[in-house]
Design goal:
By secondary structure, the chain is an alpha/beta fold. It is built from ten helices and seven strands. The two termini are 25 Å apart. Keywords: Signal.
Length: 192
């Protein structure tokens, strides 16, 4: 499991609920806490210590979402992360074999598609745009108490047969995303 963008759970109730859900999810899926790596550049020293005390691992560097699954089934927990983080993750795993090994719990890709002009989606978030026909998505059920915590959150997975139905040209483009013209960039880059 890899968790990006959890936020300042020491200060923010929504981030605490998201952390609690992550811990429950790990328990339910029988993923040992030591097999869950987290990164958020906003973590304070106390929050980092609390995560370590829970047995979780902290990634030492800002990967900018560019984490390859390397053949292992991997859950990415990315509630309310910026679109560039999802796009970078897809780019890092841009093959049917790799994408079929990952599950993402995060912002609805269908919601992203609905809210962005198609030319912006295709220009700035190419990998999200190209994988929409190869992804299955189920929204988390809403609960009145947690509307701000998990709104627009879905579980995404990439069935190998659906990915293999995409045109071969989809897989030929593998340029790293740069975001030079992106007006709504929501990512903290390395060194920032």
């Amino acid at each position: 499991c890899v968790c990006y963008g959890l936020g300042r759970f020491g200060r923010c109730p929504a981030a605490r609920y998201q952390l609690a859900f992550l811990l429950l999810l790990l328990d339910e899926l029988r993923v040992p806490p030591a097999r869950c790596a987290l990164f958020d550049p906003a973590f304070s020293a106390r929050e980092a210590a609390a995560l370590r005390a829970l047995g979780l691992c902290l990634l030492p560097d800002n990967e900018e979402g560019k984490h390859g699954v390397e053949g292992e089934a991997t859950l990415f927990y990315m509630v309310h992360c910026g679109k560039a983080l999802y796009n970078n993750l897809l780019w890092s795993n841009w093959s049917p074999a790799a994408l079929s090994k990952l599950v993402i719990i995060g912002n609805s890709f269908r919601g992203i598609e609905e809210r962005l002009l198609s030319r912006i989606l295709e220009r700035d978030y190419f990998y999200i745009a190209k994988v929409l026909k190869g992804v299955e998505e189920v929204a988390l059920p809403s609960h009145p108490r947690y509307l701000d915590t998990f709104n627009d959150t879905s579980v995404h997975w990439f069935p190998l047969d659906k990915l293999q139905e995409l045109s071969p040209e989809v897989w030929d483009f593998v340029e790293e995303p740069m975001y030079q013209d992106c007006e709504d960039l929501e990512i903290i880059r390395k060194g920032e």
